[in-house]
From TrEMBL, chains A, B:
Catalyses which reaction(s): 1-(5-phospho-beta-D-ribosyl)-5'-AMP + H2O = 1-(5-phospho-beta-D-ribosyl)-5-[(5-phospho-beta-D-ribosylamino)methylideneamino]imidazole-4-carboxamide
Organism: Methylococcus capsulatus
Subcellular location(s) of the protein: Cytoplasm
Binding site for Mg(2+): D73, D75, D77
Major localisation: cytoplasm
Pfam family, one: PRA-CH
Entry binding sites for Zn(2+): C74, C90, C97
Residue ranges constituting the Phosphoribosyl-AMP cyclohydrolase domain according to the UniProt record: 26-99
EC number annotated for this UniProt entry: 3.5.4.19
Cofactor annotation remark: Binds 1 zinc ion per subunit. Binds 1 Mg(2+) ion per subunit.
Keywords: Amino-acid biosynthesis, Cytoplasm, Histidine biosynthesis, Hydrolase, Magnesium, Metal-binding, Zinc
Protein name as catalogued: Phosphoribosyl-AMP cyclohydrolase
Length: 117, 117
């Protein structure tokens, strides 16, 4: 854990992916404490850059992200969280935060599933 | 494009996901020029933080990432690239960079597919 290349803010980006559908839900940031708590409790905890505090998703949204598996990439500088998301992942009420699709010069709001369900 | 919240280095994180299997391949960084080139050519171009240069994947690996769809998250500060990856995405020859799985206190090298194929 201590060998992970946290950036100069002590953070590492974390991708949350719904474990069974493959849908990419969100990208957020973790510090060492968030990572330790996530692994210890099985409930995903991030670091909120805006609030400068640990951010347990259910505290703000009421919906938990349960950790199924935690992976690191080849450089160890990105986390992939395979999760089971209860309710919407996005604060807009959508299942995924990635609902803005670039279509030529336009940005189209498109909340259809990115998974193969 | 100019309204995107690039960070103080002029960068935005970009997640590459194989469009048909859902496998998360890698996370890299884009600046404005990389984003413009990717959208114009349909071949994914990143910004290499180590080389401080535009990084077209096929120049280093020989394998192209073709862009299928580009999405932005709710805050507009993360890109999701749905791609068709030719050959391995990772410089280690694996399809995905996320082959290190945390298993209790251990890190297990695990290159089985993350998709539901």
């Amino acid at each position: 854990m201590d060998s992970l290349p946290f950036d100069d803010r002590g953070l590492i980006p974390a991708i949350a992916q719904q474990y069974d559908t493959g849908q990419v839900l969100m990208l957020a940031w973790m510090n060492r404490a968030a990572l330790v708590e996530t692994l210890a409790t099985g409930r995903v905890c991030y670091w909120s850059r805006s609030r400068q505090a640990l951010w347990r998703k259910d505290e703000t949204s009421g919906y938990r992200q349960w950790l199924k598996e935690l992976r690191l990439d080849c450089d160890g500088d990105t986390v992939l969280l395979l999760v089971d998301q209860q309710g919407p992942s996005c604060h807009t009420g959508r299942s995924s935060c990635f609902y803005n699709r670039v279509d030529g010069e336009d940005l189209v709001v498109d909340s259809r599933s990115l998974s193969r369900e």
